[in-house]
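Sample entry follows:

_____
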Amino acid sequence: MKRSLIIKMTNHKHFCTCKDTNCKLHPFNHNLGCDPCIRKNLNAGEIPSCFFHLIDDDISHLSEFTIESFVKFYLENKKT
């Protein structure tokens, strides 16, 4: 696990690798944890951005968060 993620997990009430704290579904904006974000993503056929952040912090070039885009992102950015 990335050191920055471990630090983030221990320094906050709830860890989240998403940097969009303006999102109403972000765990910092309510007391329901990740559930609302995961629910929204599953209903849309997508994967939450935190999975992408586990591969690489820079996801700025992504336009979709589908399973297919995650597999492609993983294959292009995995660290060996």
About this structure: DSSP finds four helices and no strands in the chain. Helices lie at 3-11, 35-43, 49-55, 67-77. Residues 5 and 22 are 20 Å apart (CA to CA).
